Each structure stands twice: as C-alpha cells, then as structure tokens.
Amino acid sequence: MIKNYIKAARLRTLPLSVSGIIVGSILGNQASYDISGLCLKSSLFFSSIFWLAMLTTIGFQVISNFANDYGDGIRGSDNNRTGEARMVSSGIITPKQMKFAIIITSGITIIIALLLIYFAFGKENFNFSILFFALGIASIIAAIKYTVGNSAYGYSGFGDVFVFLFFGLLSVVGSYFLYTKNINFEIFLPAISIGLLSSAVLNLNNLRDREEDKKNHKKTLVVKLGVKKAKLYHYLLILGALVAASIYTFLNFRSIYQLLFLVAFIPLIKNIKTVSKNKISAELDSELKKVALSTFLFAILFAITSTII
C-alpha cells in the first residue's frame, strides 16, 4: 500500500520543487554572511532553516501531487492520460483514501513549517512569523485547489500563474528572506528564472495532454492558446529565464565561473528545437524530465557560482 502512495507522490517532481529553495537559501546565506561579517557559508548544509525549508517545500509538492491525482481522478480526466498511471483513476487508491492522505500530509507539513518559522524568526520577529504562516496555509490551499473543487484553477488556465508565483517568486524570495530578514530586489531575477522554467515544465505537460484535456473540458493555457501559440509561449519561458539569470549575473559579476549556469541551458535550448518539431504529443513525455532536471542543475550551478568571491 505504501508504495502506491509513493507513486502518487511522484518523486520525480521533487527536484524541480526544491530548485527555488536551493537558489534562495544559498544566496540568502551568502547575503547574511556579507551583512553580518560572520562565517555562515560553511554552515548552510548543517542549517536547520535549510533542511526545514526543503522538507516544507517537499510537503507542499506531495500535497499538490496527491490533490492532482485525487481531483483529476474523480473528474475522470486521467482515464486516458499519457505517462505514468495515476492511483485514483486506476482504482488502486480510493478517493476517500487519497483525501485522507492529503489531510495527513497537510498536517505534517504545517508542523514542519511551524518549526521552520520558529528557527528562522524565533520570538523576536512575530510579524514575520505570522506572515510566513499565512503564506504556508496559502500554499497548501493553492496546491489543493489546482484540480480540486468546482473552481479548480488548473481547469481554467491559471496553473501557470500558480507555478510561477509559488515555485519561483515565493520559493526563492521567501527562502532568501528566511536568512536575511530583508529583500534585495535583485533576488527577484533568479526567482523569475526558476518560475519561468517551472512554468515551462507545466506547459510541456499540458502540450502533451492537450487532446485529453480538451475532451475533459480542462481549459489549460495550451488549450486556450492552441498548439502554435503554446509553443511560442514555451520558447519565451525558457529564453526569459536565460535573460533574467544573465541580468542578475551581470549586476553581480565577480568571476567568469558564474557563467557556468549556461551549461544547464544547453539541454533547454535543445528542448526548444524538439518542441518546435514535435507532431506527436505523447513524445513530449520524455522532455518533461529533461527540462525539470535541467532546472535543478541550473539552480545548483547558478546559486553556487553566484556566491564566488
């Protein structure tokens, strides 16, 4: 039974979900070092803030995946889907069982989020604690409402907005703030990059599933735009991420090694070529993993090289 919930959690989506935390944490840790003059950089991977932020984000992602499995399953949207099988639509996990799993996962994630807030802000920054708790609750609600309920925004073409805001801006800027307790507006540039690349993964998913989505009245942005415009949108997402990251690097240039993040864009540029030539939507399934892992690689290379002094 447990292995079925692990399948529903879709572990392959987790590297993408933590990409923003990696960028925000490493840059935030660097900034706190610059501000305080204390040697904090070496302590990042021993930091309670870092690991609790990672676990909180993973919790949000698992909730989202469970809710997506549940929402699409009870609507019948997954009955003829391409890619890995979904647990509710296949009958392996009942809707009642999946709903219970969502509740349990949400409870555990809230507890971890509270620990994160405590370690980050303590008792001295109560207003920040309230703000981040509210953001955590909003993240859980947004994860569930993607495909669950009559007003599920994943069925209205707003999924891309959610992914950009939560996987990009909130993930990067939020984790940066946990370390610095302030916002450097330049941090929005890598946040935009992560948000756009995360949206590109969703767009690929929707390009792959566009025919079934049409049949099931799931009005994703791809369904609304049509294939030709959705492909153009995809190119702009990837190129926009490259531009935003390049601008940040230019503004904070220290070493030629900072350009190593461009390595991650080699498979992404190749993906643009593949998408432009694609005729059979099912063939895009393998591209999802490539773009997600390229985003994860970008996050690691960009964050580490950006902290070079």
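Next protein, fold it too.
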Amino acid sequence: MLVTGASRGIGAAAARQAAARGWDVAVNYTRDAAAAEAVAADVRAAGQRAFVVRADVADEAQVLAMFAAIDGEIDAGRLAPLGGLVNNAGVVDLPARVDEMSGARIERMFRINVFGSIWCAREAVKRLSIKHGRSGGSIVNLGSAASRLGSPGQYVDYAASKGAIDVFTLGLAREVAAEGVRVNAVRPGIIETDIHASGGLPERARQLAPQVPMQRAGSADEVAAAIVWLLSDEASYTTGSVLDVTGGR
C-alpha cells in the first residue's frame, strides 16, 4: 500500500501496522527524510518490503511522479502490486477566524487536504480498478471530527476541507463499488500527534481531553488500527463508510 504523510503520527502508525499485517509499504513524505527512513526500517523489520518516496501531494506533478516511481518498484519486483492507498497527508494552521484568513492559507489547506487526496485517489483507482485491468483494492481517506463540529474560532477552513473528504469518500465509493475498489474514511477526534504543534497548539490534545466522553485523547495507533481494518478483507462488505475514532466526541 501507499501511505501518504507516513513519516509521523497516524501515517507512520498505519505503515507499521500494515507491515505487521503483511503489506509492503510505500512510505511517502514531504520534508523529513530521516523520519520516513525510520518508518521504512520498521516495515522491513516486520518482514515486509518498503520504498521511501518524496512528494508534496499539493503538487499534481509530484503526485504523478510518485506513482510512476512506485510503478517502477513494482515492475522491478521490489514491491508487491498496489493494493491499497491511505490518503493521510494533511495540515492544519494557526487558530484564526475566517475573516482573518489569507487566500494563501485557504488555498494551501485545500491543495494538501483535498486536491492531494483526490489526485492520489485518482491515480490509485487507475491501478486498482478491474475497469483498468487490475484486481481491486481499497482506499482509506483521513477525515476529521472537525467536519461535524466546524471548529469555529480555530480553523473552519480545515473543517471544511475535511467535510469535502467526507463527501468525496461517499461519491468515489459508489462510483467504483462494482470495480473491486472499496473507499472508506476514518474520522479521528482528539489524537495525540504532532499535528497540534504545527497548528500552534502543542498541548491541545491534553487540554481538550476532558471534553471527550472517554476523558482522554486517542493515540495514533488506535486510529491506525481502524485504517488497517478497513483496508483488510475483514471489511470486504464495507464501502462508502465514515468511521469515527473519537472517544465518543
């Protein structure tokens, strides 16, 4: 499988758990090559093959180059044929009201969180669908509980981008359901990952934990477990679903 944004957090956890379930993994990253290589090392330690590929999913040309590189590894026998995609790469930004947001911020948010996911899913479908002579597979998109909550006064643009992922998941799932491709989404809640620090709120998960019915933040591994289940044959009759991993929030 290909996991985008796999050098840290939920993506890294998904890559490791996938390897434990027998998947070869293409580990995508944008900036931190050392972290991506560490994830790849863990995949190999689990007995699977790994390929590290740099690409910014906000750039369509880089997405195309990434898939071409993966194709080359598959053709050379260094990776198993593509069977899954985890559309994990995503960003938040500093807290702001909508009337304070720049056009550049909003465009960046949608290029990474929405355009990148659609471009990657498009290329994955070409390599999974029986319509294209392939043998099927599964796509899991990463949404967010923010799409239900709106995130007012913090990052409405992020919430809106994840709302787009919810709708994209449903539409694509129905479009390719008869072609051997399942498409689902996982919608995390408050999870202990580095993404909060990148949004200027490193303590956010701990601060919001009391608002969660389970009274704690979740872990990247708990989200990854849901992702890997949706990718597996155990979820063979599940498509077009959005699975909340939110502790009840």
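About the second fold: The beta strands are 2-3, 25-29, 50-54, 84-87, 137-142, 181-188, 242-245.
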